[in-house]
Design brief:
about 50% helix
């Protein structure tokens, strides 16, 4: 029998510097380390969609690295270059806008009777008018 844990879903928030850092890792490695940020997100958050994204980029590496190693043409392969650019653009868009959760701003707890965010608290007249 398996036990299913219920509770709050794991969230992974990231600031813009962290997002840009992950994109820089993917771009400056020419796509060879594009799978690393997706592994980080999949381990930290654990959603199946995160594992699918990691698997897709890992499969990309398993296909493109042998493809580049067996290319004998002196000019290179145009389709390989296009595949690398499309993959890097996809990874950058996913990392900048799609993978991390948006921050939720919470209001601090107010003291009893303190004015709320809409204005002053006014107690109702108990005897009617």
């Amino acid at each position: 029998m398996t036990t299913v844990m219920t509770g709050a879903e794991k969230r992974l928030e990231a600031g813009w510097f962290q997002r840009i850092g992950w994109v820089a890792l993917a771009w400056f490695s020419f796509g060879l380390l594009a799978w690393v940020p997706f592994l980080y997100v999949a381990i930290r958050r654990g959603r199946s969609s995160d594992w699918v994204a990691f698997g897709a980029f890992a499969l990309y590496e398993c296909v493109t690295v042998p493809w580049m190693a067996t290319d004998d043409s002196p000019d290179g392969d145009g389709y390989m270059g296009l595949a690398i650019l499309v993959t890097l653009a996809t990874a950058a868009c996913m990392l900048l806008w799609g993978m991390f959760d948006k921050r939720i701003l919470t209001m601090p707890a107010l003291a009893y009777g303190a004015p709320g965010p809409q204005g002053h608290y006014q107690q109702g007249y108990p005897y009617g008018r």
